[in-house]
Design a protein that fits this description.
mainly beta, 7-stranded mixed sheet, 0% helix, 4-stranded antiparallel sheet, 53% strand
């Protein structure tokens, strides 16, 4: 199982970024995919999740209305579109999936929201 995040960077408050999570090594269309984030000095927190075929989506309250999670099962990729970014969104963003009682994580991508 491999998860590779990309798309992070430095953006001004109010700006947008789109993160990608490219997956391999498992039957992608059979598993939910989650985005977590971790700010310096804080515990890693759940941000968003999407079910195997996209019919069920959940967000942490702090990103509702600003972030959109989606997936393309033909490309084995999950996206996180982040709009109206705030300084509090600054974190390392991780892609995650749970398969056969094991959590798998990507290496993370840094998102910094600052003027």
């Amino acid at each position: 199982v491999q998860l590779v995040e990309s798309g992070g960077g430095l953006v001004q408050p109010g700006g947008s970024l789109r993160l990608s999570c490219a997956a391999s090594g498992f039957t992608f269309s059979s598993y939910a995919i989650n985005w977590y984030r971790q700010s310096p000095g804080k515990v890693r927190e759940f941000a968003a999740s999407i079910s195997p075929v996209g019919g069920s989506i959940n967000y942490v309250d702090s990103v509702k209305g600003r972030f959109t999670i989606s997936r393309d099962n033909a490309k084995n990729t999950v996206y996180l579109q982040m709009n109206s970014l705030k300084p509090d969104d600054t974190a390392v963003y991780y892609c995650n999936t749970y398969i056969h009682r094991t959590n798998y994580w990507g290496q993370g991508t840094q998102v910094t929201v600052s003027s």
